[in-house]
Amino acid sequence: MSLSFLHIKTLGKLSISLPVALTAYTGYIIYDESLSVYGLLVAVGIFFLSAGASSLNQMQEQKFDALMSRTANRPLPLGVINGSSAFVITFLFFLVGTFALLPFGIWTVISGWMGVLWYNLFYTPMKRWSAFSVFPGAVVGAIPPVAGWIAAGGSILDVRIHFLALFFFLGQMPHFWLLVLKYGDQYRKAGFPVITDVLSEEQINRINLVWFLATFISAMFLPFFNVITNRPVVWIITISTILMMAWSVRITLQVQKEGQSLHLRKMFLYFNSFYLWVMILIYVDQI
Fold this sequence. Notes:
single chain; mainly alpha; Tetracycline Repressor, domain 2; 2 domains; globular
């Protein structure tokens, strides 16, 4: 089987690296107060750093990926890409990402690489011994918008970027725990400690509801911190957030009555779509 773009795409998780890049662009335009074309270069840099981090992660966890059906078809456990080729691809991802960020200064490069180092040197090893690794892992989701903000010239002391980072941080917990609920048996088979070994599914659903609501409530504060200022957009995000809060309570009650298998995919899709919707509203706010 020959190497193809699909294998490289899977190795770098490009479909996941894209929304990560969009969060960096979100941080950039909030400070720049325009839909900056120049800011897209920051997004490109974060995109390739994210791809490199994902590629390195698969190199680190190759033997574990081979034990789970959801990951066994990745290029490394499948044998389509060997270790040397994966190293070269990973290096190129990092090289392109770093050079894309260089025009914005050394602190932008450092902030971008902080996400890589935290993900690969701290979170990835921690997954093997703690079922609660999601908490430090969530920090990874808060770093790209900060990198975009710094690239645009923003101060790290500005409360706006801290609150935007908090918004992206909060959503990481339900995102990861929904995955664990769906693939818990596979994680356990591969030797990873999973949250269902510590808490019951009913407890996890209740905790997830708290994180759902915290995420949605934090979105309502984006106008308060002047992340969103256009009045029609403020109304749209307020109404959207209230609807999502009502949905989260309703879907949690359904899960308790009918079980998780019927609703996990819907919960994952709806929740992550909300993040995309908020970013779109932030972009519209800058028009």
